[in-house]
Amino acid sequence: MADAARTAALEVLRAVRSADAYTNLALPAALKRHGLSGRDAAFATELASGTVRRQGLYDAVLADCVDRPLAKVQARVLDALRLGTHQLLAMRVPSHAAISTTVSLVRSDVGPGAAGFANAVLRRVCEHDLDGWVDRVAPDAGDDLVGHLSVAHAHPRWVVEELSRALGSRQDEIGALLVADNEAPGVTLVARPGRSTRDELPGEPTAWSPYGVHLESGDPGAVPAVRDGRAGVQDEGSQLVALVLAAAPLDGPDARWLDLCAGPGGKAALLAALAGSRGAGLVANERQPHRAELVRRALAGSPGVLGIVTSDGTAPPWEPSSFDRVLVDAPCTGLGALRRRPEARWRRQRADLHDLVPLQRALLSSALDSVRPGGVVVYATCSPVLAETSEVVTSVLASRTDAELGDAAALLPGVPDCAGPLPGTFQLWPHRHQTDAMFGALVRRLPA
């Protein structure tokens, strides 16, 4: 019989493949369903997340080990083979244990014939270690560097190209960035000012956010402040985006803040706490009703909430010039958060930019209409792709005479090496800052 941890991981893989589930959302339910905690939960988490991250490389390995196209391999069997390959090539699991448990999964789920097939394939996988397989299945780096990096680090070719372009003059860092994308992210907590303090959160203080800590181990939901909603789980990069908006100098009153794309509510909760501590308030807007409900839960109990609105951010119901500060955390490809959203690299296509970029421009324009003259807007994405960052900002500013680019990077004086693609913008990176690759631009609405 296969153990519960491997069974849970396999269930997550199947949910990701067949139901378009998100790994980080499917995992907690699977762990709970199988009663996993501690080391067993950690093992299942690495098994599922690591397999999804490196799926492209593992498929290249498996294609070399089977006697038919992978498309002809039954999907349920292929899920298990990927799981076994990850154990053999990237985890400290003895070969006999990785093979026997995977074969047991296939036997109980599909049948003895499929189990025999899985056993034969995985024994072929054992013939090389990870580096040996990369040498065998990846293009030669001297002939096709992008192709080699794509296979070796399990990123689609177009993603490698876009990330290289975003690095600009630092393209020699692309290998380090791809490695960082494949590392399991740590858990970062944020204390919400006025409701909790960093001192009551367990863990090492974050380097640049005064409200964050890196949780070394354990369930964040077991931390009292997190359980009570006075603190939350939030990457340090996302914390810094909220802090830039809160720190930006403006002219005139500072009473009404807006999070234009608030779901699922992490940045909104921090902004509401910051606003409330100054006697200001936040309106959180979210277009999708189910995400608006997540925002409502995240903001429950926060004193700095003026309202939660469910509306299209490109055509909002409020009057123009209604707010003093506005955050646009725009929908994007998410290529800056591949550590924690491993399936995104396999779902996103370059063609997605054709729909996302016009939406991003429309949201930034709407934010500038929503902020009063003298107020400020922060445009942010969890993607470093230039089409979604500098090109959106440049395009919108070129279409308006009432806005100018401010210096967001100056509001992060302690963060090294974070200059963005436009002067004054900032770009964080997993390999440099151990955060998601958050981009931010500060835009000022000019007085009439």
Automatic annotation (TrEMBL):
The active site is at C382. The keyword RNA-binding applies. Residues 160-446 form the SAM-dependent MTase RsmB/NOP-type domain. Keywords: Methyltransferase, RNA-binding, S-adenosyl-L-methionine, Transferase. CDD domains: AdoMet_MTases. Transmembrane segments: none annotated. GO terms for biological process: regulation of DNA-templated transcription; RNA methylation. S-adenosyl-L-methionine binds at C261, A262, G263, P264, G265, G266, K267, E286, D312, D329. GO terms for molecular function: RNA binding; RNA methyltransferase activity. It comes from the Bacteria. SUPFAM superfamilies: NusB-like, S-adenosyl-L-methionine-dependent methyltransferases. May act as RNA methyltransferase. Belongs to the class I-like SAM-binding methyltransferase superfamily. RsmB/NOP family. This is rRNA cytosine-C5-methyltransferase. It comes from Nocardioides islandensis. The lineage of its organism: Bacteria, Bacillati, Actinomycetota, Actinomycetes, Propionibacteriales.
